[in-house]
Amino acid sequence: MLHVDIFTLGIFQVHSYLMYDDVTQEAVLIDTGKDPVEILDTLRRKNLDLKLLLYTHTHIDHIEGHQLIREAYPDLPAWVHAADQFWIDALPMQAQMFRMPVPEPPVITGYVEPGHVFSLSHCTIEARFCPGHTPGGVSYYVPEGPFLFTGDTLFAGAIGRTDFPRGDFNTLMHSISTQILTLPDETIVYSGHGPVTTIGNERAGNPYLAPIV
Ligand SMILES: [Zn+2]
Ligand SMILES: [Zn+2]
Predict the structure, then answer these.
(1) Ligand positioned closest to the Cα atom of 160
(2) Quick one: pLDDT band at residue 43, thresholds 50, 70, 90?
(3) Are strands 110-111 and 78-80 parallel, antiparallel or unpaired?
(4) What's the pLDDT score for residue 207?
(5) Which domains does the chain have, with CATH numbers?
(6) Residues forming a β-bridge with 49
(7) Cis-peptide into 146, omega within 30 deg
(8) Listed residues: CB within 5 A of ion ligand 2
């Protein structure tokens, strides 16, 4: 059975998600918030086999903790959409915006193509390209859950900001309409910040989605 552990880290209270199967022990990490010591402890305590690191996007709060994970898992494949390389290259600017030290850029081993399917022994993870909050935003859909990891594209009762460089409101709405609202109502939505929700809840009650539902 698939499980999702939630780790809320750093001043931005960003969620990192550890999805794992309790039979095969295979695990996938979605985003790396600051100081992810608890994530490493959980991996060891539950004896999990971390296979994959997937980034929803590369705003500083979602990548901040990558170094600790990389030290523990030097060969871990890590993926992001190529268009978000822009935000990795702009890490010094991101750090300056929030008066933070500049982190080392995360090691990326592959660029996610829209529709790419990652296959694990217990589940598949489909990359749904959701630009708008950032140019390379990706939501990851796991039909076996069903789960959707949306990063900062969609939140419970809200949507992602589009006022950062290369953000775009119409693009974000188009992404949500074509890549997210097309999923089943029972899909559990794990977003980058705030409470867990479902597609059905957001379709019915998210005021920002009223023009497109
Ligand atoms: Zn963001
Ligand atoms: Zn965020």
Answers:
(1) 1
(2) very high
(3) parallel
(4) 98
(5) 2-209 (3.60.15.10)
(6) 26
(7) yes
(8) 61, 152, 192
